[in-house]
Amino acid sequence: MQRLLISIALLWFAAAAAAQETSPVPDPSPGEPPMTMPRLAEIIRSIDPEAQARGPAIEFTVQDIPVIVIADARADRMRAMVPIRAADGLGSDELMRLMQANFDSALDARYAVAQGRLWGVFIHPLSPLEREQFLSGLAQTVNVARTYGQTYSGGANVFGGGDSNGIYQELLDELRKGQEL
Q: Which runs of consecutive H residues, i.e. helices, occur in 54-178?
């Protein structure tokens, strides 16, 4: 029985991968330096010149959506977070849907609960993080907040021929403006 389930899962993954639409992502810059907190802050300020640093956190806005990025160089971690709603009242059906989205449609972003709140988050080691990875993860995190309660999608890769890829691509292109860093 377990072999049958594994075979079915492998076939499903192969079919899903073959049917998946992808948006083109440029190759990372050759010789891109390791990500540092000052470099990350510079990228964020090119997105929102009014970004506010508060200790290890930087608060800024992407298309009217508040974003908080927290980085810790000693732990070599970075977290981009978008608040979505209070966690109170999330029922089991909703939590199940969030876990399903974390598996297939949220992509590099994730739904998470912390401090009594539902968040969209992108978590990555800091030093190997490349500019394009950060921008893509940020766009996906904004999109999981936008699509909460609807498609629950990070937007970069979706099954089918819907509008999500175009919406994601427009946001990613906007974030890339001025990114000659």
A: 92-104, 131-146, 164-176
Angle at 95 between CA 89 and CA 100, to 5 degrees: 155
Q: What is the pTM of this model?
A: 0.74
Report if residue 22 sits inside a domain.
no
DSSP state of 126: S
Residues near 112 by beta carbon (within 8 Å), at least 6 away in sequence: 118, 119, 120, 121
CB 53 within 8 Å of CB 41: yes
Asked whether the beta carbons of 146 and 133 are under 8 A apart, the reply is no
pLDDT per residue as tens, the chain (181 positions): 444 333 333 333 333 333 333 444 444 456 789 999 999 999 999 999 999 999 999 999 999 999 999 999 999 999 999 999 999 999 999 999 899 888 888 889 999 999 999 999 999 999 999 999 999 999 999 999 999 998 888 886 654 444 445 555 677 788 788 665 5
Domain count, the chain: 1
| Residue 72 domain flag | yes
Mention every residue, 6+ apart, whose C-beta is less than 8 A from residue 174.
63
